[in-house]
Amino acid sequence: MKSIYSFHEGSASMKELLGGKGANLAEMTNLGLPVPPGFTITTETCNFYLEAGEYPENFPDELGAKLSELENKMGKKLGLSENPLLVSVRSGAKFSMPGMMDTVLNLGLNDETIKGLIKNTGNERFCYDSYRRFVQMFGDVVMGVDHDLFEEAMSELKEKKGVKLDTELTAEDLKELVKSYKKIVPNFPENPLVQMKLAIEAVFNSWNNKRATTYRNLNKIPHDIGTAVNIQAMVFGNMGDDSGTGVAFTRNPATGEKVFYGEFLMNAQGEDVVAGIRTPLYIAELEKNIPEIYKELFSIKDLLENHYRDMQDLEFTIEKGKLFILQTRNGKRTAKASLKIAVDMVAEKLITKEEALLRVNPSQLDNLLHPSVDPSCKYKVLAKGLPASPGAATGKVVFTADDACEWTGKGEKVVLVRKETSPEDIHGMNAALGILTSTGGNTSHAAVVCRGMGKCCVAGAGDIIVSAKDKKFKIGGTEVSEGDTITINGTTGEVILGEVKMTAPSLDEDFTELMSWADEVRVLKIRTNADTPKDARLAREFGAEGIGLCRTEHMFFEEDRIDLVREMIVTKDNPKAIEKALSKLLPIQKEDFIGIFEAMDGLPVTIRLLDPPLHEFLPKINDTEKIAELASQTDLTEKEIISIIDNLHEVNPMLGHRGCRLGIVYPEITAMQARAILEAGIECTKKGIKVIAEIEIPLVCDIKEFIAAKAIIEKVANELKPNFKYKIGTMIELPRACLTADKLAEEVDFMSMGTNDLTQATYGFSRDDSGRFLPRYLELGIIKDDPTATIDQEGVGSLMKMCVKLARQTKDDMEIGICGEHGGDPRSVEFCHQIGLDYVSCSPYRVPIARLAAAQIVLKEKTEEVARRDHGVIKKAASPKYFPAYNR
Amino acid sequence: MKSIYSFHEGSASMKELLGGKGANLAEMTNLGLPVPPGFTITTETCNFYLEAGEYPENFPDELGAKLSELENKMGKKLGLSENPLLVSVRSGAKFSMPGMMDTVLNLGLNDETIKGLIKNTGNERFCYDSYRRFVQMFGDVVMGVDHDLFEEAMSELKEKKGVKLDTELTAEDLKELVKSYKKIVPNFPENPLVQMKLAIEAVFNSWNNKRATTYRNLNKIPHDIGTAVNIQAMVFGNMGDDSGTGVAFTRNPATGEKVFYGEFLMNAQGEDVVAGIRTPLYIAELEKNIPEIYKELFSIKDLLENHYRDMQDLEFTIEKGKLFILQTRNGKRTAKASLKIAVDMVAEKLITKEEALLRVNPSQLDNLLHPSVDPSCKYKVLAKGLPASPGAATGKVVFTADDACEWTGKGEKVVLVRKETSPEDIHGMNAALGILTSTGGNTSHAAVVCRGMGKCCVAGAGDIIVSAKDKKFKIGGTEVSEGDTITINGTTGEVILGEVKMTAPSLDEDFTELMSWADEVRVLKIRTNADTPKDARLAREFGAEGIGLCRTEHMFFEEDRIDLVREMIVTKDNPKAIEKALSKLLPIQKEDFIGIFEAMDGLPVTIRLLDPPLHEFLPKINDTEKIAELASQTDLTEKEIISIIDNLHEVNPMLGHRGCRLGIVYPEITAMQARAILEAGIECTKKGIKVIAEIEIPLVCDIKEFIAAKAIIEKVANELKPNFKYKIGTMIELPRACLTADKLAEEVDFMSMGTNDLTQATYGFSRDDSGRFLPRYLELGIIKDDPTATIDQEGVGSLMKMCVKLARQTKDDMEIGICGEHGGDPRSVEFCHQIGLDYVSCSPYRVPIARLAAAQIVLKEKTEEVARRDHGVIKKAASPKYFPAYNR
């Protein structure tokens, strides 16, 4: 077993053995870059040590040999007082675990070698500062000394010297401090070899410290892969005016522009750049300061970007006029930059279109479609809720939908704060810039409606106590009243007091281009959830290939028709009166559908029949005004209407009289809706519009239920004889529908999975109530991802797979999609592709995300062998298309 | 293909070919009984005819031959005017379909043969009455003439003759009527052979009439098996004083006593006995009238009972001193008789114990355990609801729980009528004799509590509009006020105005004996759902082998502790205050468990931790009195308490913050309950009581959730170090728990399926709200059996099977039971046995039902090859025991 690799012996492909950092240092070394030399102790050695409690037999010899090699390369020697070698000892696992494990810098210093360092640098203060830092770091990290003790010693000294800042301490002061520190670390080893041995062991042991273990749990990193240890010669950017240090990006990480971007400080250490005590210079200044170094750095950045084929974030140090590259990695970037860099690099023929597609994180696209909080700005978070609908909004707080409208009417920007929202709040939600609720989850009314509107929403901020009556909300000790300004960040779930700087949305050619590539790759179709012609047109612009869910009831709430809907409901048990009410609703519904068919000309439109419980449409029982109005509109007394409202009350409306259960008990309603759809389709077809209608029966639990509902529609169809193509299918949103999908498939023409309701039933979580415990569950790690945001593959997903398998056993070309909110979540989109669905449908603003995610999974399947067959699902033939050029 | 079998050519085993009636007539003929001769046209012939539209080729020849044979046997001839043969033509399918298909009697009559009949009978009036009946029946059934026309002709004649009753018409009048009838049936065929051919075809065709098809749909009888046709010589009990007719049972069908039981009329037809115009005589009188006939009949009844090995219901006719047996079948009987006959027949060595067990319908046992409406009495049904808890009760109507207590205190018997009940009504439910609700289903609060109490309940009588405020309820035009007397029948769901005759419950030695046999046979263990020591003791008397579900929260509602529970809830977010409240509750909970452990000494006790949402325990928000009380009990203001109550409101409490979600967010509550259980167990063990405790964590959806809850219990256990055996397991009541049962099995010690909640989640039906559509679904046949009463094997059952399979993959001896209300439903009990569960748990009063059903399925598996392996479930070794004697 070879325990140690010199940098030049490794490569980027050896991450498993050398860790990410070690492999990267090796790669750069072999590229001929000026990397401070060093070697890497393998992860295998770490595992051996952790298991056996000792090093492998030949380890000491190897270490000796590699150290000699390093000493020779550097012309310095560990512990040699004239020309001492100083090294850093750093952890580095296969997967990045930033800050979780230990690091020791400046190892090799002792009372002898300090002299050599002073001689070499000519900077006594720097040397003693380095020395005292080393003693402190070694004491803290390796010897386990309480780091408060160092702070105390420092404070004492500063008091004694009458200074306030560390920087005011002289070389002499620091020398004294080293002595104090050594008293705190009585076992401080002067022998640099002992220092190194202990430091290596400390790094090994830090693999199992609590924060590293927790981090691995959270990030699903295996516990048995161990960390490598990198021992590297120290270089110093603070050895005079011909020294310096900096960080640079190969392109602008904020905009994506192809310009060399970064900053540096001469005669400084890395931490000085970060600490902000001195103001760093733009990288372009380096060209003026030391043109030959700039030139070298410039060509290195080109080399690195070309080599890694991605924008790089690199760290460099100049020691006495010599450039060293300390690190390179793929640079973090904004959504906008991510998109631009990916598209530009394709134009530069640096990467393929496929690679470009994989470079952009679909979730990030959200930021391009909505205003967002400027990532550079600092603010205090007042409370946290669920990030229910992305984007951010700043506005004055209002507590009722009516107030939201009124204030907006007066030109104010408002955020509507509610305990929860209901369909009655729609007008206020429409008026507000954003919505904040204290209960409800990711699929609560507020969340779903806001995503549909592309409006930001923080839902279920459970710590907030909303008092709509008093027009204020409380959070801890803070009270926020009507008119106070808050900012909500729907991308993070943060609630912030006051205003925060925002960045505006932007959709440019890069976006359009990348999307067109995605469309060429993906197999999954992307539809949208849209209830109005306006939403339908918007979604079509975003690339939707049809409507996967048109909720007819959302149309019911509009001003001009809610009265008619109410009339229909209160007269439901009087055949004559309901017939009258329905005859008034019919032409309005028909107009709605005409508008949608026109907007979706040539694309399929799935229209769901009335779904919510009827009481949702009625006025509240204490709303005497509206009740009186309703009484005057019908032959009923106010008392009778109150009694009807009272009788419609349900204990668990989610599990109550809704979905097709309504249309079966009140077949007139289903018949009216079927007539509106079919008459609209007939009229549109006559006008030359291509209508593809899918009539969807919701909440079916049994085939007989479906047959009963279908019969009502077919009776109308037999009468009207439609001149266009239509299907009758069902929403799959109950576990029983999945379990009996083979039976259902005998009768249904298509299936659309309502994964919101399916998740609720499978978990027994109500979207409106889970706010009471779900945040705690996420906090405790009982649930890793909110299942209403990302499909729970283990539970809900297994029902979905069952459904697909059973349904296609009966009908092998059964069209199956999903229309839950998961349709816009990248991981869920990937899962839907993998189990062989035909499409996902999501709110208009999430269509681009779904398009990209659907393309990525195709590419991942090819490159990472994420095989669809692993899911054991029968998928009808659908051979993914690739770009002809894709042939690396 | 042989199309026709003479009776002597068939046997009881040929039901498929000859139909039930034909096979039975054949069997009796071959037993040498005096059955009027005849023959049966096979079901195959029917199917051939229905498919081809014509008879098989050789059919006419066969019919001719069989007819000659019959004519020879009878010494009569079809169509011969001197001595005409008259026959009946009756349908008879494999499965009894009473009244669904057509029958023609007296076939062979025409204007010629009537003369011979008159000569033979000497009773002209009877003959013409028979003739006009034949013409009418033939016209109606065979020729499809509107039967109103016959009524009109009859009315006209009576008016003309100035009489009111049919019986007042003379022979001459009837002769005239025959003429009128023949005008109504102008194509009436005089030729008896044509009559016969048309009658046979009419019977064949009646197989596909609407009511027969509907009946088969409802009773799951295949549509392709066809009916046989029985042609049998007519015999007449009204040919003079040496003729007669009667029905008899081989034992008393009401009591089960072994006495010959029945009644007869001399010189009468069968319909005279039924019509009640003359009063029939007891069968014993026959001995005095015609001793030789009685003797013959007596020996025939013995022969039949011994042959069929069951109590027989037989029909006989005496024609001119000759006895004919027209029919025998297993007699319908009361629950009491069923039990007595089964046990007696074992003593008589007529049947085996196994057969005796299969003879008693487990559902019928309910009638033995509760008072029930006397089946012989007639009453008008006011409304129908769900038969939620069996038995019947008559009492004065009250509308609040408090009124129920008050009236009962004054010595009144009351029925509590509510829209729905809640835990706050418990005291009133306890006081009332029965409960009637207008909403809610078979697992609603009212239903579950009543079954537990053994109290009758009609739930979800949706047509009733209850106004508790006005103290009355309305149903259609009827208004029932406080104090009015009603009767509710929880066995049928009927609501009756006024009082109805009841039969008292009876539990005798027969019952005990049969139950002991059941216990020897069954594999499945039977536990009970009991929350108090009293219920536990009762259930043990009924044969429960442990408690499968002890709902700790039911204890919380008792007078002395609800205040403490409320204190616990309102102080839940204040660690110090809740600790104080819990410390007061702890000793009380502990006492509860001590009582239960004592009652169940040596048997397992499954204790479920707090399950319902907290708001269920709190006063209503407008109950200022109780809120004030609660405020005085705590440091909170009334306003704060109102705000807490308001904040606990949930949109869908069934899917809300309940089950283990409570104990995880408020671990102090779980810890207190664990401490109460464990301390109670320790104390009981010290007293020499054998404690087997199963601590059950409710509503688990994920293994991590279980682990979190278990950790709280184990922390307490580590402190207390219990000296007895206990397990920690979970309730399986969410689809996700079934889908991930393999994972759960890694941690849980036992699983108990809460099939109530599982059914609700799988169907998306709330027990509290399904009353709005479930009755309509049952009516439309969309759902055949209420899934909250009988396990839905297709949907919920497939999740259950999945759970058993997955759990035992991980842990092959995993203890799995069910504790939902299905545990007392015979078909569900059978299913639980078949999928390999260890036990079912049901309310005390249903324990005997479950014991019997569990035995029956073992026997059915042996005799009917209902193989458990069909369900593909791995079942740990459990070879059923049989009686050594069982060796037929």
Can you describe this structure?
Two copies of one chain form a homodimer. With 888 residues, chain A is an alpha/beta fold. The first copy, chain A, is built from 35 helices and 31 strands. Chain A has an eight-stranded mixed β-sheet with strand order 12-22-21-14-15-16-17-13. In chain A, strands 24-25-26-27-28-29-30-31 form an eight-stranded parallel β-barrel, surrounded by five helices. In chain A, α20 links the parallel β24 (525-529) and β25 (547-551). The interface between A and B is large, with 54 and 54 residues.
Indicate the topology:
The structure is a homodimer of 888-residue chains.
Chain A: E1 4-6, H1 15-30, E2 38-41, H2 43-52, H3 59-74, E3 87-93, E4 103-107, H4 113-121, H5 124-142, H6 148-161, H7 171-184, H8 192-206, H9 210-219, E5 227-233, E6 244-249, E7 261-266, H10 270-275, E8 281-282, H11 283-289, H12 291-308, E9 312-319, E10 322-330, H13 335-347, H14 353-359, H15 362-369, E11 372-373, E12 381-384, E13 386-389, E14 392-398, H16 401-409, E15 414-418, H17 426-431, E16 434-437, H18 445-453, E17 456-459, E18 464-467, E19 472-475, E20 478-481, E21 485-489, E22 494-497, E23 502-503, H19 509-521, E24 525-529, H20 533-541, E25 547-551, H21 552-556, H22 559-570, H23 575-599, E26 604-608, H24 624-633, H25 638-648, H26 660-665, H27 667-686, E27 692-697, H28 703-720, E28 725-732, H29 735-739, H30 741-744, E29 750-753, H31 755-763, H32 774-780, H33 796-810, E30 815-818, H34 826-834, E31 839-842, H35 847-863
Parallel strand pairs in A: 14-15, 15-16, 16-17, 24-25, 24-31, 25-26, 26-27, 27-28, 28-29, 29-30, 30-31
Antiparallel strand pairs in A: 1-2, 2-5, 3-4, 3-5, 6-7, 6-9, 7-8, 9-10, 11-23, 12-22, 13-17, 14-21, 18-19, 19-20, 21-22
